[in-house]
Amino acid sequence: MARSTTLTEDAYRLLRRDILRGHWKPQEPLRMHQLSDRYGMGQSPLREALSRLQAERLVVLMPLRGFTVAPLTPVEMWDAINFRILLEAEALRLSIRDGDDAWESEIVAALHALVLQARRLEDSPSEADQDAFEARHHAFHHALIAGCKSPRMLEQFDRLYAECERYRIPNMAQGAKRDVQAEHRAIADATLARDFAKASALLAQHYRDTAVRVEAGFLRTA
């Protein structure tokens, strides 16, 4: 049982990573023989992983066609972004109200780690550096709202984060230059100052600015 669980977790982690990074393209069929060849495992853990990814809206089950990668559209993106803003604003409000010293310390540490890794990524944009940056980016945004003390909110945050990353990552280098780390610092500063109105406004603008850039990418390729 433990071995089966480990294989399923490995399949889920690897498939999820490849979908977020764009190895498997939107609406591309996910054929079992191709997945088995790439990940070196049987169909059972892969099917379980695909079912989990379907619940996260990263894959869809098509009648008579099996699993395919979920499509990317401006409508879907804005729906995810707007719901994410609503969810994280409330989680942020609760965190600012109830967060303790440990919560504040985690924000400071996560921001520092993210800024350091962003600098490394500029110097040596390797795949490993990109993976490290994405992990620290997630950790920072998670730290902001971790003080809400709601496992359901944090679970939904993870799902929405993954949905939005599929749009953000391929468009990171496009459009006008932004000082994203300055945006992160401003959000953290307002949060640590317990200024909910400012922190939530900055966070919402941070997400919307990314969505506008991604939407422009859709228009360029239309």
UniProtKB/TrEMBL annotation:
The keyword Transmembrane does not apply. SMART domains: FCD (SM00895), HTH_GNTR (SM00345). Residues 5-72 form the HTH gntR-type domain. Gene3D superfamilies: GntR ligand-binding domain-like (1.20.120.530), Winged helix-like DNA-binding domain superfamily/Winged helix DNA-binding domain (1.10.10.10). InterPro entries: GntR_C (IPR011711), TF_FadR/GntR_C (IPR008920), Tscrpt_reg_HTH_GntR (IPR000524), WH-like_DNA-bd_sf (IPR036388), WH_DNA-bd_sf (IPR036390). The keyword DNA-binding applies. This is FCD domain-containing protein. It comes from Pseudogemmobacter lacusdianii.
